[in-house]
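sorry for the late reply, my laptop died twice this morning and i had to redo everyting from scratch. anyway the thing you sent over, i finally got around to it. pasting the sequence first so we're on the same page, its 195 residues, then the predicted structure underneath. double check i copied it right bc i was rushing
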Amino acid sequence: MISFIGKYTLIISIAILLSGCGESAPSILTTDETAEAGKIIESANQDLKKIKVLYHDNEGKRHELQSAVEASNVEEVKRISNEVVKLINEGTNYGNEAINKIRDARKMNINKDYNEYLGLKEESLMKQLEAFNSYHTAARILRDNYDPKDAKAHAKVKSEFDSLIDKYRELMEKARNNSIEANDLYKETLIKEQG
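ok and here's the structure:
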């Protein structure tokens, strides 16, 4: 019969031996951090809720801006554009914080499906930030260069604005598709775990 010290030495020896095996080591020696990662993601969700509030509270700005452009109202175009730039800056800060938290969670020892889900959510959020960057650029162009009295400059600014808004819409659609894919993965994972 092996003594307590012998058992302890044997367990330590096996642990040292297996520690060099990396991810192929048996799960008994690994620590699942999925629950801890979930707490980080909850914090990221709080950042995303702040963005959602900003978005919903200012949803009409794009239409206001387009109306001001169509009315050739320089003061309104510049005022609204400046507000949009500030709002997007604030939302982008929250978005970057959320992305960093998602990345931190993905670096942890978490469930493979959860990691894949978080990757899709990260990709979706990055597309949204890219979309808002296009909108931000469009608003800055209007704020800094809008002059309906100069027909050539006006046409150029309007063309750039329209192009960037189209890019914004396209990227937001891709972001929605990524988010739907992530949600589908989540639902599939739940079904697999239940059945």
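Residues 1-30 form one domain.
thats about all i looked at so far, will dig more tmrw
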